[in-house]
Amino acid sequence: MLPVFDYRPEAERLRDELEGAFRRVLGSGRLILGPEVEAFEREFAAWLGVPHAVGVNSGTDALILALRALEVGAGDDVITVANAGAPTVAAVRAVGARPRFVDVDARGLLLDPAGLAQAWTPRARCIVPVHLYGQAAPLGPILEFARERALAVVEDCAQAHGARYRGRPVGGFGEIGCFSFYPTKNLGALGDGGLCVTSSAALEARLRMLRMYGFRGDRHAHLEGLNSRLDELQAALLRVKLRHLGAALDERRALAARYREALAGSAYQLPEGPADSEPAPHLLVVRAPDREKATRALDAAGIGWGVHYPEPVHAMEAYRFLGYGAGALPVTERACREVLSLPLYPGLPPSAVERVAGVLRGA
Predict the structure, then answer these.
(1) For residues 312 and 332, what is the distance between their CA atoms, to the nearest angstrom?
(2) For 120-178, how does the pLDDT look when each residue is reduced to its tens digit (9 = 90+)?
(3) String of b and e for 99-121 (b: at least 16 CB within 10 Å)?
(4) pTM
(5) How far apart are CA 162 and CA 249, in angstroms?
(6) How far apart, in whole angstroms, are the C-alpha atoms of residue 281 and residue 272?
(7) pLDDT tens-digit map of 180-193
(8) DSSP state of 103
(9) In 3D, which of 173, 141, 140 has the Cα closest to residue 157?
(10) DSSP of 292-327, one letter per residue?
């Protein structure tokens, strides 16, 4: 069976370094918010080219803490998309705000800036563009709209470590950028983890307080905070993988290019981000006109697959109260019926791409 994702080939390549990091933490006497977390925050900030990074428990927590740091809450609206799964919307609801959805563009399945004016309300406080599948959202017009309406921008970079927009890595354009280190991500932990980046020293201080009960280097709650801490072991393992992230991204890009070539001229289209961006492929997604037929063929050939994501958030039972009926977001809804994720991860044999493409073409 060829899996759609497998962390083991990359982990095996880095086994000695990962085991060394584990032993270092085991003998350190520090397991929570110690030198490994501090070092990883510095190293990730330097890699991204931003002044500040704050490690947290997960990518969803990163979004929650970012919104709370910006004082987004009950009575506020947050503009985002509905085709990126539940986590982004769950974070908006966790702070008491209400999501306002924008349809996506058909070419890249990313937030379509043309829909921002319609989604805006006087209660809007923030836009959360999602850099989906490793593609950079069209930040230029999004940031321009945000400036005109005095809105904050929180970038959801959970799937886009290493993606670039107009020559700069995503995450550093808005007030806060939020990353996930879930194992499938471009920079994946061996467990959960997340991180916020910002250029604002004031926001960094608020994020550090919010991630630990509102404490400020003391045991006094200055803000109503949470318990959302990146642990020392995951930070140490992520430091190892960060050193090799450039090579891993090169491998992902080469595999994605091979897929694009192998499927050229077929019925399967790969989404494409803005022309002035460079993707960092996290998922290899195609649009399949007959997804059921394609997945049957993949199953028969012993090839793993996924769907990211099969149902738009506004159609999910938990979020129907938002009032978006069928047809409200037509491009989003069609994309959710067609998207299909194919195997992509460091260590995937290049020959596997031809095998997968051959099965899809045969279907």
Answers:
(1) 7
(2) 999 999 999 999 999 999 999 999 999 999 999 999 999 999 999 999 999 999 999 99
(3) bbbbbbbeebbbbbbebbeebbe
(4) 0.97
(5) 7
(6) 11
(7) 999 999 999 999 99
(8) P
(9) 173
(10) HHHHHHHHHTTB--B-S-SS-GGGSGGGGGG---TT
